[in-house]
């Protein structure tokens, strides 16, 4: 049986490790270590977040899927499959920000473009107070920039513990970041106009608005916010021989968070189910750890942690991701 995997992120690589005879298709020749995108902005070293992918993977752009004929249409020709796992990651929705001069932070190239733009910027507005926005704001402040962090919710890191939220706020403010909470962005031009006032910034970076990639909708798959709908077994609600994994999918009548940990777990389960195991998908979000300046903190198994323990957990997550890709290269 020929299994084809679209995308070689956390979900795609973990799926491949469960079935090394499968075919992996990705337009890039490197794995993006999203944990370190902010490090790339800080240091300008792409190798911090770009890990070479196995050369056996097919480097091609996915143009679509003929689900009836069971063929993936790519820039390098058609690829037939018996079972298909779609794990194409996420993209940022910039359509809700009425401006052309807003930079996104999805990948290594984005990180390098932001770093280049920082050369002419004294002030930066970061839109979104999730993990990415909080870490980026701390890094920019350490680089000597005047930073405005704008968050639509009433607190930062709204999906994490109150302790993590409070700690993030205190650390950012100690670094000089002006945090604007409960502030919805209306438009971005010469000024960033929000429901709580206007901000003048030389550079605007969007770190929110995560959704599934637009190709999910273009393929005609049932979706919510471009995240393909799957059942409890991660099987597409539209086609029984198609599975979804990672950030590009969500379970029907439920919700699946976008995170590397969940992506790895869903990639493994999608492959095992494609091979015939038929087990319902369940996930565990064990840890969410951040770095603001030199401080590490976050939630570990439901409890707030900081300091050396938090740093060890974050470093271990990076280590596991690197080893996962290295293992795929050795198979």
From TrEMBL:
Organism domain of life: Archaea
GO biological processes: aerobic electron transport chain
Pfam family, one: Pyr_redox_2
UniProt KW keywords: FAD, Flavoprotein, Oxidoreductase
Keyword Disulfide bond on entry: no
Boundaries of every FAD/NAD(P)-binding domain copy: 1-267
InterPro entries: FAD/NAD-bd_sf, FAD/NAD-binding_dom, NADH-Q_oxidoreductase
Gene Ontology molecular-function annotations: NAD(P)H dehydrogenase (quinone) activity
Cofactors: FAD
Entry-linked PANTHER family: 64 KDA MITOCHONDRIAL NADH DEHYDROGENASE (EUROFUNG), APOPTOSIS-INDUCING FACTOR 1
Family designation: Belongs to the NADH dehydrogenase family.
Protein name: FAD-dependent pyridine nucleotide-disulfide oxidoreductase
